[in-house]
Amino acid sequence: MMRYLSLALFTLGSLALEHLPPIHYTISRRGGSFPAPDIANLTYLLEQLRVVEQRYNSTTRDFIGNKVVRKPKRPHGTQALSTLLGDVGRDGNWLASLHIGDPIQEVDMDLDMLTADWWIFSTSSGKGSFYLDFNSKTYGKTSLSFRCPELTEPAKQWVRTLLPSGAYLGLAASTALSQTKTVSLMMQMIEKNVINTPVWSLVLINGKDGIFSIGGTSAPSVRRAKMETDDELARAGNYEVKRDEVVASRSAADIEMEADLSANEWKWSKVQGAEGWWQILMRGIWVDGNKVLENQPIVLDINTPFILAPPVAARAFYSSVSWSRQLPPPYDQFHAYPCFNPPKIHFEFAGWNVEVLKGKRDKGAFSAGGRFSLGRMASGSGYCLGIVVESRMGKGMSLGTEAGNMGFETSMEGGNGLEDVWIVGEPFFRDVQVAFDWKEKKVGIQRV
């Protein structure tokens, strides 16, 4: 069941329980599932790939003290502040609904793992969901239990006034990417004893629906419901077969204990690389039972509809896929493979292999190559486009001699440092539940 977060209703007197349950939201993808037609639209796919790359190229690396961090990129050749990261209302964003203020106003809240701010974007476009600060009794009052997100209203002559209104919730691992003064939502919830576990998690049910949890994960609740359902089905089945026998069932305590044991199945990896995003190390990539790559840095991002790989890694990956081939320019970031012979792929994390990109497309979205496919090359073709595509990111200005003075090698060259990094996007979140520990800076993965 969906739970709305109502900022006006939480009070300073919230009871501090030993273990507070997480808050679960249902989330949905703007525009519905990523298109998976029978025939791939290469022009559209290339446009979407450029959108993804632009999001990442809006940041750079810098130093704060002795740490390398990710920061918003300042417009070249100007002294102006960098533009606000994130696009409210963009098709492809995953969103939840937020209740704000008194009287309550419902605002669509876009989730973004690449930004760190919590803010509201209010325009005169007439599109999107609106928060009217002048209609709220609590906006701007320090007595409010929660400090409202920053309200951004573009100047009337600015082109962004044509964009939809809405809210944005940055979920990045570091405040180095912050561009506003608003305290993060999770920090405020912990301060007010709404939650006491600095963890949030994501799991996707299909290509357009999922669950976003703050203060824990949905795994125990899902497992508890599944075990209760299995027990009911077992009792019903046994009743039909053996009416004269008593069917034993687990007690509520047994079900609770078994559900909680799922916590031991999480595989945790420490966040690494420049501080900012949820970047971890993927220990290995397996294709049809063979380990083809190892120790690959990856950034997790639910708003990326592909699996992006560095060029060298992508070509090594597809060289292990029988009869695959790279497309000619301008579509050479894509590779094709025989539709009816998709590879069996496993990603390895912390000594644990999980099969990914398996199975068929969602109901109503047909593709001969299943979830690994972006569609056929052409009508009647036996070749499909693979969802693992080559990135063209990571090129840019050097950080200069300061990097060398601090002991960094040539890996510090190249702007945002993404030339050797995978972007593991939305398709991966269909196969696992992912938990993000904001305090300990680690990522947990569990099979769905």
Helical content, roughly?
10-25%
Class based on secondary structure composition and strand pairing: alpha+beta
Tertiary shape: globular
| Rg (C-alpha, Å) | 23 Å
N- to C-terminal separation?
19 Å
Can you summarize the main beta sheet? 12 strands, mixed
Helices, by number, come to 6
Strand portion, in percent? Answer: 25-35%
Low-confidence stretches: 1-17, 239-248, 254-261, 396-414
Mean pLDDT: 79
Task: Report the count of strand segments.
Answer: 25
Key words describing this protein structure:
disordered N terminus; 12-stranded mixed sheet; alpha+beta; 7-stranded mixed sheet; 448 residues; 6 helices; 25 strands
Textual characterization of the structure:
This protein is α+β, with helices and mostly antiparallel strands. 15% of the residues lie in helices and 29% in strands. A hairpin with a 6-residue loop joins strand 20 and strand 21 (383-386).
